[in-house]
Amino acid sequence: MTKDKNIYINRELSWLKFNERVLQEAADKDVPLIERLRFLGIFSNNLDEFFKVRYATVKRIYEAGKGGKSELGGIRAGDLLEEITQIVIAQQSYSLEILEEIDLELQKENIYVINETKIDERHHDFIKNYFYQELSPALVVIMLNEEVALPELMDISAYLTVKMSTKEGKDQVALIEISSTMDRFVVLPSLDGNSYIIMVDDILRYCLDDIFNIFTYDAISAHMIKITRDGELDFDSDLSKSFIDKLSESVKDRQSGAPVRFVYDMNIDPDTLTFLLKLMAIDEKESIIPGGRYHNRRDYMSFPSLGRTDLLYDKIKPLPVKGLSFEDSIFKTIAKKDYMVYTPYHTFSYIVKFLREAALDPQVKTIKITIYRLAQISHVASSLINAAKNGKKVTVSIELRARFDEEANINYAEQMQDEGITMLFGVTGLKVHCKMCVIEREENDKLVRYGFISTGNFNESTAKIYTDFTLMTSDAKILKDVNKVFNFFEVNYKVNRYKHIITSPHYTKTKIFSLIDKEIESAKAGKSAYIKLKMNSISSYKMIDKLYEASRAGVKIQMIVRGICCLVPGVKGMSENIEIISIIDKFLEHTRLYIFSNDNDPKIYISSADWMTRNIDHRVEVSCPIYDEDIKQELQDLYEICWNDNVKARIIDETQNNTYLRNDKPKVRAQFDTYKYYLNKFEG
């Protein structure tokens, strides 16, 4: 099949459509007010990472003199860079409109986000004291001139460009760094029953004369700028350096990567803007985007709640898993049957309890686990260290290249290594993205395996906001295969055979193709034939082509894809049997679930892998079969709840309009109804 733009949606443009869905949540008046601000923060944070990675990659293709059409779904790199910039400018403009609307709604709730021109005299002393006590000692101010080279600007910070002017026409320009370590929002004392918040940027504007009192000027102004750098890591080839050393240096070098986006306050003086662009050597290849008064809007993810729980989503209390008890041994419980933990509807504490129990149990001999992204304060890591201190043989495969979490992972890797844990730093040329653990316990003079396989990271923080499945099992067949994956980490020139799990990079494509072929055969024979998929993204042309083939054969395909979707559904003669929705809501939909009819005897897998080329060919991934009939039914029920969402689901089709799915059926909001499903399950 020819790779044509009518057959595939460009990956980058599809991603921007996903981020537009995030922006829709910020615009949705049914979303609690402060949560809307936080969705604006998520939108901005997503965009930052997009420019650091995906835009930077397209830019590299462009600068290498390559057209990029085959890699980019039928569009040239130069044209794509221009289209991205235009879309982002429009989205940024819309986000500013949303922000203004939210600000008016906050005022109706007696919450005022003020700037330096709206400060009440009664707040003057508080603000000045805050400036001198909290901000002034930590300020970094850079005086600019053409004779002195500009220091590298941090892309995790925003900067106020300050212009001091005299009547004689002598101008002085400076930059004030707004460090990511500063609290962006400062809550002022309440006045007359009203709450007041001021951004640290505006405190600095209010105190410009205090900062620059050694200079003489007639006028002073400040406008914000922000730079985003290429975030891809480049490794040197010095064989004498350890992988950790190389990665540490590469993470540090990220701050000096080539600029890929420059955002500025559209009200900045044109001469000052030209001066800055020249000083930073930013030309037409960079994405130069006019913005509003404030940048780094990702900080809105931490907008203060002011104790106003009525302006937030109700917090859910994680439910117990029926049959699993913190008062009993998890080993003894899962020896009898498999259990599924579905965070955040269930508590992540079951996983930590399992590891802590293993750390103390004298019969446990070995623990092997993969780690992709650890929490800043990780009970998982402390449990593993505890186990090592108790004489267990602990092996941790940690992915040091988990994008933007490299530094935290490096710190924990060094700490665990110091405690005697055997550390495996992945496989050459592959990222280890699978999430699994296998524990060996001595019982009646033989080793019995227990473990868990997950769709998500073993991370206490993200487990509160990401939806993920974790299968807890003592199934010897599955865990024998899982153990083989750990053997592959240590002896990776040997490719193992697996009877139950599906692994990347060796078998995912061929095994999934085999499962799809079975559905094609069933459809041609007039039997039940369907495929139901839930994942974050699909961009692999090979996987898309196979689904097109299945659709043409009459296989009914339902897909729930949160993010990138390069497949074009509903096209006659190509994909008319494929329907796709996307759900963006309170929690981040992170589960990967594959369901194949198998002639009405469903084969069901949970997986760490999306259907992207990187997951299929360039990562170690594991898809785990579900054999327990109760859990199989549970997963099918959960899929149907999501598929029937008519509140937060958007239709993905040829138009790419992100239209909400609406019908006359009773309201189904998947995440809320999933909680009700588990509540009924536990109580009933």
TrEMBL record:
Domain Polyphosphate kinase N-terminal: residue ranges: 8-113
Residues noted as binding Mg(2+) in the record, renumbered to the chain: R373, R403
Entry keyword set: ATP-binding, Kinase, Magnesium, Metal-binding, Nucleotide-binding, Phosphoprotein, Transferase
Entry PTM: An intermediate of this reaction is the autophosphorylated ppk in which a phosphate is covalently linked to a histidine residue through a N-P bond.
Alphabetical list of InterPro entries matching this protein: PP_kinase (IPR003414), PP_kinase_C_1 (IPR041108), PP_kinase_middle (IPR024953), PP_kinase_middle_dom_sf (IPR036830), PPK_C_dom2 (IPR025200), PPK_N_dom (IPR025198), PPK_N_dom_sf (IPR036832)
Domain (Polyphosphate kinase C-terminal) ranges: 329-493, 502-671
Active site: H433
Record-listed ATP binding positions: N46, Y466, R562, H590
Reactions catalysed, as given in the entry: [phosphate](n) + ATP = [phosphate](n+1) + ADP
This enzyme's EC code(s): 2.7.4.1
Cofactor dependency: Mg(2+)
Record-level Gene Ontology MF annotations: polyphosphate kinase activity
Domain Polyphosphate kinase middle, residue spans: 123-303
Its job: Catalyzes the reversible transfer of the terminal phosphate of ATP to form a long-chain polyphosphate (polyP).
PANTHER family, alphabetized: POLYPHOSPHATE KINASE (PTHR30218)
Protein family (similarity comment): Belongs to the polyphosphate kinase 1 (PPK1) family.
Protein name, UniProt field: Polyphosphate kinase
Gene: ppk1
